[in-house]
Amino acid sequence: MKVPWNTDDEDLIKAALKNAGLKKGDIKSAHIYKISVDARKRDHKCDSIKKVASVVVDFHDKGIEENLISKGFKSFGEGSYIPSLPRNKRAIIIAGFGPAGMFAGLVLSENGYNPIILERGGEMSDRVTAVKSFWEDGILNPESNVQFGEGGAGTFSDGKLTTRINDSRVRYIIETLVKYGAPSEILRFAKPHIGTDRLREVVINIRKAIIKNGGEVRFNSKLTGVKTELRRIKSVVVNDEYELPCDALIAAIGHSAHDTVKMLMQAGADIEGKPFSVGVRIEHNQEALNAALYGENRGRYKNLPVGEYQLSRHFENHTVYSFCMCPGGVVVPSSSDCETIVTNGMSFYARDGENANSAVCVSVSPEDFGNNPLDGMEFIKRIEAAAYNPKKPYSAPGTSVLGFLSGKASLSSLSVNPTYSRGLYESDFTGIFPEFIIENLKSGIKAFSRQLSVFGDGGAVLTAPETRTSSPVRVLRTEELHANGITNLFPCGEGAGYAGGIVSAAVDGLKCAEGATKIGRAGGRLAPQKIF
Ligand SMILES: Cc1cc2nc3c(=O)[nH]c(=O)nc-3n(C[C@H](O)[C@H](O)[C@H](O)COP(=O)(O)OP(=O)(O)OC[C@H]3O[C@@H](n4cnc5c(N)ncnc54)[C@H](O)[C@@H]3O)c2cc1C
Fold first, then answer.
1. C-alpha angle with apex 60: 57 to 63, nearest 5 degrees?
2. Contact 90/112 with Cβ under 8 angstroms?
3. Is the distance from the beta carbon of residue 199 to the nearest atom of ligand 1 less than 6 Å?
4. Residues 6+ apart with CB under 8 A from 71
5. Is the distance from CB of 1 to CB of 54 less than 8 angstroms?
6. How far apart are the CA of 96 and the centre of ligand 1, in A?
7. Which of 411, 320, 414, 326 is nearest to 360 (CA)?
8. CA-proximal residue: ligand 1, atom 14 (nearest)
9. How many CB atoms lie within 10 A of CB 447?
């Protein structure tokens, strides 16, 4: 259904029933399932911005339903995901308490398992303290930061829950997030978001539920090794201090745990390099963006969502696209390695910050960085290290868009106040990115300015580098989801190369939990042993 944006729920449902030729008496219930905004055809008229909605109707008489389906209406609800795991007492270890590890742990604990979850970073409040001390004082904890710690990489994010995957587990995940405290509106918005503030509460509630169900979450506990026999993990090593027996290991370690990926590779896991992207963060004034997207009459519309965009343009060998847009958000220092610079974006639930930001990224592939499985990691490391300015520790290279496009970097005459808390130093990014990245970024920004006027604002600010867009490697796995080289290792989520974003990582976590419960038990139980 497409109706004027200001249409309220009741009138929208009435319109949907009328559209289907239904009377109130024909139905048992009706509710709005999904809503999105369509402002593409806006003009001066005050109802040109539309609400696109799907309405779910339940009937007394199934005959009416079948008749509508024969007319092309879709039936709803078939194929909802209901987790069912075999009940056996496998010793399952999960490395990583990001969305993938969290949902793997939750579904296992809800089905009679006692998963032990190892998280190298700190528990939420310690982690928040560590991140604050980095953002404010430049003191980086390489084990507890924006990438590592309770909740994983997405904790300091906009908490966007959009995904392109079509899987019945997606709805289950959104419903589960609401069950543990997320705002219920995420069930009905086509582009739902939670915001970092609400997401942190949800993560803590899920952790408590896992523990209540008999699971365990060990913080500041890093998977540092695996003991294998006949291509099978017998035990895992934690903090190089002690071992834990293991029937199955779900490695949900995220895209920044390069050290752990190397360890699994040495232990026999097959790894390959994969495409990802790198770029910069661009910041605009949010109100200017709202005006560009919704027009000067936007004040006449009730509760229009804060303006957001998605742009992409394919050039000769590379695609330039906007990524991880954070309306009303900030650019956050996101390093996890000392003397490196990494940017990303974060918003609070209200998305009420002055600026809008997104990454503008260029796709890269092994053709650009080399065919050795770890070349992508090295490519990222070089960019992040080159961006580090020892004279201004953890300040980031930045310039106005005009300065960037003209090749004369400048941080004066900006139209927005940069939000990167460690401050910026002037740079046109030469020497940080390879030339082809800089040229593609310039072409991309110029092309986007023809699609969306704010991109033409020379006073907008660019902050670099955005490098943690997705994993530079894939840990090869079989259809049963265990690693090629190690039969009871389940490479999982974004770090393993099977997800991109909070929801798709959580989906992969559920899948790997299902997979891990289906394997045989490792020969006999081992008591935890001290390593000398
Ligand atoms: C700042 C920021 C903003 C983002 N915004 C969004 C957004 O709005 N929406 C969205 O969909 N996605 C967003 N993302 C991406 C999203 O966070 C990731 O795609 C998602 O978190 C991947 O989930 P994961 O569980 O696979 O890995 P991660 O979330 O990265 O979690 C991996 C966890 O494993 C732990 N770990 C790593 N190595 C070890 C080890 N050896 N032993 C024990 N633990 C280990 C890490 O500490 C980490 O906590 C954002 C990412 C960042 C960094």
1. 90
2. no
3. no
4. none
5. yes
6. 9
7. 320
8. 154
9. 16
Rounded Cα gap, residues 45 and 47, in angstroms: 6
pLDDT digits (tens, 9 = 90+) for 56-103: 999 988 899 999 989 888 887 656 788 888 877 789 999 999 999 999
pTM over 0.85: yes
**CB of 264 closer than 6 A to ligand 1?**
no
What's the gap in Å between 334 CA and the centre of ligand 1? 12
Whether the Cβ atoms of residue 420 and residue 396 lie closer than 8 Å to each other: yes
Distance 502 CA to ligand 1 centre (A): 8
Measuring CA to CA, which residue among 224, 245, 202 is closest to residue 114?
245
Could you write out the DSSP letters of every residue in 434-462? -HHHHHHHHHHHHHHHHHSGGGG-TT-EE
DSSP 8-state symbol, 113: -
What domains are there in the chain, each with its CATH number? 2-70 (3.30.70.2700), 92-272+472-516 (3.50.50.60), 275-466 (no CATH)
- With a 6 Å cutoff on the Cβ, whether 100 touches ligand 1 is yes
Q: 256 CA to middle of ligand 1, Å?
A: 8
Q: What is the pLDDT of residues 139-150, one digit of tens each?
A: 999 999 999 999
E-state strands within 221-329: 223-229, 232-238, 242-245, 248-251, 271-273, 276-285, 312-314, 319-326
Residue found under tokens 């430049």: 138
Among all chains, which residue has been given the structure tokens 């039936």?
75
C-alpha 63 – ligand 1 centre gap (Å):
48
